[in-house]
Amino acid sequence: MNNDNPFVPRAIQDSDCGVRSDVARLMAMVDLGHSSWPVTVAILAEMTAAGVDLDAAAVSIAVKVSMLRWSQAERAKPPLTSAAYQPQLHSGQIVYYVRRGDLVKIGTTSDPAGRFGALLPDEILAFEPGAQREEAQRHRQFDHLRPSSRTEYFTAAPELLAHIRAMRTAHGEPDPAWPTMANRPTRPSADYLPSPMITASDAAKQFGIKPERVRAWASRGRLHAVGVSQQGQKLYLTGHIEHLLDLR
C-alpha cells in the first residue's frame, strides 16, 4: 500500500510497504517526544547537504550534537520566577552589564542614570534586578572570563553574551536615556555628574606612567576623551584609566 503521510519523503518510502525498514530503524533513533528533535532534523539536513551518508553512526552523532545544542540553549534561558515573587525588584537596585571596548563590566547600582553618567560606558547591554549578592553571583559565574582578578570587567565570550541576551529578554531593553559615550550631554548638569577627569600628562604623574601610554590607549580606541581642558588638552575619565591599568 502507498503511504501518503506528508511528513515522510517519498524517497524513503517503499511503494508497497510504506517507509523502508532500513530508514525506519534510523528514524527510530530520533526521539520525537523530546524537544530537541527539530535540532536533530536540522543537523541531519546539514549532513546530507555535505554529502554524509546517513547511517546509524551518523544519526547517532547528530542526536548527540543536537542534545548538546539544545541543553546549551536551555541553560541560556532566564530562570522562571513566580509573578508574585520578584526578588530585589522593590529595592530599585539592578545588576548591570555594560560594554567598554572589547570587555563587559558587571556591576550594581540603585541610581543607573548617575552611575552610567560617571562610568560613561560605550554601550549599556542589559540589566536585571539585584544588589551586591546577585552581583557577586554573576562575578563567580563568569570568573574564568576575567582578564585580571582585580577587575569587574570580563571577556565578551559567547556564554556571557548569551546570558546578556537572556537578561534583555527577561527584563527588557535598557533605558535609552541612561548616559553612554554616544549620548553624553555636552554640558554636565545636576543629573549628570561625571567621575573625575584628567589629562594624559596629569594621569602620567598620578599613576607613574608615560603620557604616551595614555595617548596610545586613545589612538587604539581603548580610551575615549570626554572633554577638553581650558588649555585645550583632552580629558579622560580617571576611572577608565584605572581600569586599563588593572588589566596590565
Descriptive tags:
Arc Repressor Mutant, subunit A, single chain, alpha+beta, 9 strands, 248 residues, disordered N terminus
Q: Can you walk me through this structure?
A:
It is a single chain. This protein is of the alpha+beta class and 248 residues long. The chain has three domains: 10-76, no CATH class; 89-171, no CATH class; 197-246, Arc Repressor Mutant, subunit A (Orthogonal Bundle). It has helices at residues 21-27, 37-49, 56-76, 112-119, 132-141, 158-171, 200-207, 211-219, 238-246; strands at 13-14, 18-19, 94-100, 103-109, 123-129, 153-155, 197-198, 227-228, 234-237. The strands form three sheets. Strands 5-3-4-6 form a four-stranded antiparallel beta sheet. A hairpin with a 3-residue loop joins strand 1 and strand 2 (18-19). The protein is elongated. 19% of the residues are buried. Residues 1-20, 80-91 and 187-194 have low confidence and may be disordered.
Unreliable stretches (pLDDT < 50, length at least 5) are: 1-20, 80-91, 187-194
The total number of structural domains is: 3
Report the count of strand segments. Answer: 9
Structural class: alpha+beta
Strands in their spatial order, largest beta sheet: 5-3-4-6
Overall pLDDT score = 75
Main β-sheet, in a few words? 4 strands, antiparallel
Q: Strand content of the residues, in percent?
A: 5-15%
Distance between the termini: 74 Å
Global geometry: elongated
What is the tally of helical segments? 9
Q: Into which percent range does the helicity of residues fall?
A: 25-40%
Report Rg: 27 Å
What is the N-to-C succession of helices and strands?
EEHHHEEHEHEHEHHEEH
